[in-house]
Amino acid sequence: MRKYFITLIAIILTCTAACGQAGTAETGWVTSPADSLLAERVLTDLALHAGEPVPDLMVRAGKALEGQPYVAGTLDETSGEKLRIYLTRTDCIIFVETCLALARTAAQGGDFKTFANELRQSRYRGGRVESYADRLHYTTEWARQGEARGVLEDITDDLGGMPLDHPINYMSSHPGSYPLMDDAQAICEVEEGINAEPRHYIPKDKIAQALDGIRSGDIICLTTSVEGLDISHVMMAVVEKPGTVRLLHASTGPMKVVTDAKTLPEYLAGRSSVTGIQVLRPQAYTQKGKNQ
Questions:
Q1: What angle do CA 205, 250, 135 make, to 5 degrees?
Q2: Has residue 103 got a pLDDT over 90?
Q3: What is the topology classification, in CATH, of domain 2-291?
Q4: Residue 3 pLDDT > 70, yes or no?
Q5: Where are the domains of the chain?
Q6: Which residues on neighbouring strands pair with residue 138, listed in sequence order?
Q7: What is the pTM of this model?
Q8: Which residues contact 214 (CB under 8 A, 6 or more apart)?
């Protein structure tokens, strides 16, 4: 009997560890045992390096997620807006956003709940998760909120950026591509807000001059000629030596998270729709960036 109870307790503890994060009513987020366990494993590793700068922690997090499959649309799997936390399947912006949240969580000595809060503050306008329109669907708005919170700095101009005249209206112009979009007017207002402020980029033919200023952990956003769209892909820089910039990203080529064999200029050379890049630099964790 005693052996039976010991075994039962062990099973309960194991189940609690694996499944404790995978609810919604109590936790306020949606995830799975596999995703929460992977997040905990990455956070445990990052805790050993918590004194490193946030960008370096981001690269460590990204390396830990190499091989995870690229899957589009994971935030739109069901109706009803929820904070969805997935590490075992990801797309380009979710991957970078997740690495940033993991790095910031480690920098403050936080746990899974801290990580979830970092994602919520990053992914949603003002951190509010009530409707589809609350989510920051455009990378441009995501970056601007990150700047306002002191989490990111747009260094595009410092690296030779130029004004970008490319109005944003892709979502409102393609409503059929967004079946969960239930408030088109709200999205139009978001687009108007984006277009009201100037945007800058480094043209593709000027990127070579900017390479020396890019550091590991910088977020590289690809501007595009696609009408109405702001950013077509988001990646993380891995600098092997000054001027040699490789890319850690959720790639649609091998359909998984990889450190690309190509350098940034090599990667862009064969992509005719890419017009240039924007560069965002993750900032040190501060209390200002925690809740604002």
A1: 95
A2: yes
A3: Putative xylanase fold (1.10.3670)
A4: no
A5: 2-291
A6: none
A7: 0.91
A8: 159, 220, 237, 239, 245, 264, 279
Handedness of CA 102, 108, 112, 113 (dihedral sign): negative
Overall average pLDDT of the 52-81 stretch: 97
148 CB-side CA count, 13 A: 13
Q: Can you tell me the distance from the alpha carbon of 242 to that of 109, in angstroms, rounded to the nearest whole number?
A: 31
Supply 136's token pair. Answer: 């920051």
* Contact (CB, 8 A) for 217 and 58: yes
Q: What is the mean pLDDT of the chain?
A: 91
Q: How far is CA 150 from the centre of its chain?
A: 16
- The dihedral built from the CA positions of residue 213, 215, 221 and 225, taken in this order, carries a sign that is positive
Tokens of 140: 């441009």
How far is residue 180's CA from residue 177's CA, in Å, rounded to a whole number? 9
Contact present, 128 and 292 (Cβ < 8 Å): no
**Residue-wise DSSP of 8-64:** HHHHHHHHHHHHTT--STTTSEE--HHHHHHHHHHHHHHHTTTTS-HHHHHHHHHHH
Amino acid identity, position 81 = E
Provide the terminal-to-terminal Cα distance of the chain, rounded to the nearest Å. Answer: 54
Residue 16 pLDDT more than 60?
A: no
Residue 140: Cβ-neighbour burial (10 angstroms; 0-12, 13-18, 19+): buried
Residue 6: predicted pLDDT: 36
Among 220, 207, 206, residue whose Cα is nearest residue 95: 220
Q: Is the predicted pLDDT of residue 29 greater than 90, yes or no?
A: yes
